[in-house]
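Reopening this one. Same input as before:
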Amino acid sequence: MMKSNRTYTLLVPVLSIVLGFVVGAIIMLMFGYNPIAAYSAMLINVFKSPYFMGEVLNSTAILTLTGLAFSVAYKTGMFNIGLSGQFLMGWISSVWFALLFPSMPKVLMIILAIILGTLMGAIWAGIAGGLRAQFGTSEVVVTIMLNYIAYHINNAIIHGPLASPLETPLIGDNARLSLTALTNLTKGSRLNLGFFLVVLVVIGYYWFMKRSTLGFEMKVVGLNSDSAHYAGINAKKNILLSMMASGALAGLAGVLQGLGTFGNAFIQTSMPQEGFNGIAVGLLGLGQSLGIFLSSLLFGILNVGARFMPNGAGVPDEMAQVVIAAIIFFVGANYIIRYFLDKRHAAPAAQEAKH
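Same output, byte for byte:
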C-alpha cells in the first residue's frame, strides 16, 4: 500500500519545501519582485563564498542540535516548545563559567563548560518532564513559561553578577571553540570545532534511537504509554529522561553559540529563533538524524543567503523568512499534502476497480 511506502513518506517534507519556495515566489511577484533573481542571488553567493559556506555550516550545527532536541522528546510523545529557554541556559551558563576561570587550561575549560551548559539545559527541560511524569502537567504550558524565566535570568545575570550593560566581555582563548585551520579554510567564518561535535552527536542519536534499549522504550512510550506500562516499561522514567535528553541537546546548542559563534553573551530582546526553528527542523527531518541535518542545512542556507537578496535582486531579506515560515506552515499542516496525495493515489485505484 502506498501509505506505507517510504517514498510516499518522504514526499511530504519534499513537497513542503517546494511549496514553501512557491509561496515565497508568489508573494514576491505580488510585490513586483523577481523571485528567480532573488533565489539565484541567495544560492549563488552562498555557494561561491568559503566564508558564507562556513557561516551556513555553523548555523547548520546549531539547528541540528535543536532539531534533534525536539525530536527526542517528540518520539516519546512530548512537545518540547521550551528549546529557546534551554538553549539560553546552556549559553549563559557556559559563558559565565568561562569568564569566572580565565586561566583554566583550554582542554579542561572546554570539557567542563560543555558539561555545565548541557547539564543546565537538561535540568531546565527536566522541570517540565518531571511535572508531566508525576502530575500529568502539560509540558507545552510549562516549557513556554520556562522560556520566559530563562529569558529574564539571562538578562539578569548580564546586568547583575556580570555587571554588563548590553553584553559580557569576550571569553578568553582558553574557552573558544574556534580552530585556526577552519577559520583560514573558510576565510574568517565562525565555523568551529562544534561542527565536528555535532557530527558525532548525529551518529550517536542514530545509534541511540535505532539500537539502544532506552531509545526503543522511549518510542514505545510515545506510541502508547498505557501499553508501554503493561509491557513493563516505566513510562514516567522515560518521559523524564526524554525531556532531559532534549534539554541537554538544546543546552549544548547554546554552548556552541556562546563559546563558538559569539564568544560572549548579550541582552536578549526576544526569544532566540534557534529554538523555534529547531521544532520546524525536527518535523521537516521526520525525526531522523540525517533528515534533521539536511533540514538544518536548508535553513542555514536560507538564513545566511537572505542577506544577498536586497543587493543582488532588490528583494527585502525578510522574504527569506517568508519562505521559511511557508515551509513551516506546510510541515505543520502536512495533512493537506497527505490529503491530495491520497486523493491522487485513490483515483487510479478506483478506475481499476471499475474495470
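So the earlier flakiness isn't reproducible anymore. For the record, The chain has 16 helices and no strands.
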